[in-house]
Amino acid sequence: MNPLLVLQAAEHVRSEVREHPKRWGCLALFLLFGPAIACVLVAVLIIVVIAGGAGGSSSTPGQVPGIPDVMLTAYQQAAQRIGGIRPACVGMRWAILAGIAEAESRHASGRTIAPNGDISPPILGPALDGSGVGGNRTPIRNLDGTFARAVGPFQFLTTTWAGVEQDGNDDGVRNPHNAFDAALGAAVYLCGTGPRDLKDQGQLRAALLRYNASQTYVAQVTANIKRYDAVELQPAVDASGAAKIVIDAAMSQLGVPYAWGGGTAAGPSRGIRDGGVADRHGDYNKTGFDCSGLVLYAYAKVGIALSHNSRAQFALGTRVPKEAGLGALRPGDLVFYSPGLIHHVGIYLGDNKMINAPYSGAEVRLDSIALGEFAGGTRLLQ
Q: In Å, how far from its chain's centre is CA 185?
């Protein structure tokens, strides 16, 4: 059975119990006096409800661009289960584990990931023999005398894994090369043994520093986490084909900083000076997107090359006039704003929503379409 479907079913049951306590209370009393199997079902229901309050994230998006489905399920399941292992730890969520796994292995990129979470071939770092490979100058040995090395999608040192190993898929094996085991082990390691609130940025940074004592690493992972946290806002998008590819590409950049002049067909890039607002926000020192740069990047995924200018983008494709209203737009269409001259562009998602890089000081995000300066749309995908 798909672990993600089990978690979603449990969450539905919890919601029903909270909204209709009398209904479920009567059912519980009835079952209490029923056959023995009914008593077991009541016990299971109680356990599910209690476990749900343990502090894990309840947000479980079904797909996230760039993350294999099995890896995403492993992150989500670990975030749900950690409350039963470290009850004093709150605020764990799948985005934290995804942020680390992206930095450590790009979500096991280039490997085969079996439905049970086994990853092949194994992800192995160099032996820490003090030779200088990977910056290591101090030999680190396992208990058996062999040299330690980083292993698996979360790149645990073999010496560290011995202290946090978990059986995340309940197969009786604790394997750092298994997505479910490694994700739950990472959650245990981040939580530590005392009280910890990972919703608090200071405590989250302290946990990440314990994972890797590098400020550069922490900055990278916190940026990843912020981007994945934003994915939880992802609406249901009724798109397919090229439109879905464009939208998925843009959605994968949620949380990336706005940088005036930033964005290429390959991804975010360093911003440039504008002599005004962008300079005051330091955009020239940021790596990110401006509005047309995000559009340029997303459409490059379907082989459409666009200029880095919203006015030039407005002149392309089939016009969807503002008089036709938002109902005439399709997911993937470009939507434009103008107080006179075109100055902003976003990608339409449906349901009056767009994804865009709005302005200096902000990030790639979802916004409702405000009609005040709405100038209509263009359709590049037929």
A: 19
DSSP string of 74-123? HHHHHHHHHHHH-TTEE---HHHHHHHHHHHHTTTTTSEE-TT-BEES--
Instruction: Please check whether residue 16 is in contact with residue 45, taking contact to mean a CB–CB distance below 8 angstroms.
Output: no
The CA-CA-CA angle for residues 231, 237, 241, to 5°, reads 110
Residues 61-70 as b/e (b if ≥16 CB within 10 A, e otherwise) read beebbbbbeb
Kindly report the number of other CB atoms within 10 A of residue 43's CB atom. 11
pTM of the model: 0.56
The confidence band for 27, taking pLDDT boundaries of 50, 70 and 90, is: very low
Alpha-carbon span 144 to 201, nearest angstrom: 38
Mean pLDDT of the chain: 83
pLDDT for the residue 138: 72
| C-alpha–C-alpha distance, residues 279 and 274, integer Å | 6
Q: Using one digit for the tens of pLDDT, what is the confidence trace for 275-284?
A: 999 999 999 9
Residue 149 to residues 122, 128, 136, 180, 213, Cα–Cα distance (Å): 12, 6, 10, 20, 17
